[in-house]
Amino acid sequence: MPLITVDGFREDAFAPLEDDAPLPDGAVLVSLARFHKERDALIARNAPLGVRLKSDQSPELLGKDVHRLSLVVLEFPKFRDGRGFSWARLLRTRLGFKGQVRAVGDFLYDQIAHQRRVGFDAWEVANGFTPDDLHRALNEISNVYQPSADGRKTIRQLRASA
């Protein structure tokens, strides 16, 4: 699937690896299980490293190693499963993660703006999705009701300051 960021389409620099595949040179994306099993060897490679988390795997399972990662991929198995929103916000706020947070799986166009607000900055999208679609998704809502990781003022805060 194509990879899009707030800056447009990008080539995915991370090679996704099965748990039993040999490690290639360069940036790799591994499962949480493989990360835990081969942690020392993966970190010693001194190459960009990403971990893919299933919707039931909290980023807290990465421990202090979260800051050694360049990418955390959060899966949306069904668009109704909103745990990825919570995980992204936790990564950005509580864990202070500065790398890329990528959404993959079954999410909807109208969820992208909130995904961005909680910390996502990359999406694996269906063929036919365009940069204009992303721009429109991110800018359709001009005011927000709930606080989030992006620090935007809520409607309540705007009213109170008026």
Characterize the biggest β-sheet: 8 strands, mixed
What portion of residues is helical?
25-40%
Q: Unreliable runs, pLDDT <50, ≥5 residues?
A: none
Shape: globular
As a whole number of angstroms, the C-alpha radius of gyration is 17 Å
Question: Mean of the pLDDT scores?
Answer: 93
- Strand-residue fraction? 15-25%
Distance between the termini: 45 Å
Beta-strand segment tally? 8
Q: Any overview of this molecule?
A:
The chain starts with a strand and ends with a helix. With 162 residues, it is α/β, with parallel strands linked by helices. It has six helices and eight strands, in the order E-E-E-E-H-H-E-E-H-E-H-E-H-H. The chain has an eight-stranded mixed sheet. Helix 3 (83-92) runs parallel beside helix 4 (112-118) and helix 4 (112-118) packs across helix 5 (131-139). The mean pLDDT is 93.
